[in-house]
Specification:
The chain has a domain of about 55 residues. It is globular, with a radius of gyration of 13 Å. It contains four helices and five strands; from the N terminus they run ββαβαβαβα. It has about 110 residues and is an alpha/beta fold.
Length: about 110
């Protein structure tokens, strides 16, 4: 995983393919909790498996950002991974974009 400060108010998170074995999203939760004055884009381009822990972490990031008036955008989500969100009935809770460029452009239009 890598976390990039894309701009003064946007963080871009590249997730690895083995998401459940790492604590990437827990790191992001800590960052948002401690210094959370930004929007977050999470790139799923390399992710092949998403489990319950990942969904719980994403919900926590979403809650923290919403409480602070900020936005979480998920991008590069493969159809099979999107199906996990749909099956869990979470697809309406998150904003999905095709890729990181579309996500970053949508945040710039809002800001």
């Amino acid at each position: 995983m890598s976390i990039h400060r894309w701009s003064e108010d946007v963080i871009l998170v590249d997730l690895p393919w083995e998401l459940e074995e790492q604590d990437e999203l827990q790191t992001v939760i800590g960052m948002v909790r401690d210094w959370g004055d930004w929007d977050v884009v999470v790139d799923f381009s390399h992710v092949t498996v998403v489990g319950g822990a990942c969904l719980a972490w994403l919900l926590e990031v979403q809650r923290l950002l919403n409480d602070g008036g900020h936005k979480l955008t998920l991008c590069g989500v493969a159809p099979a991974i999107k199906g996990v969100f749909t099956s869990a009935r979470l697809d309406d809770l998150f904003e999905f974009t095709k890729d990181r460029f579309a996500a970053l452009a949508s945040l710039q239009m809002i800001g």
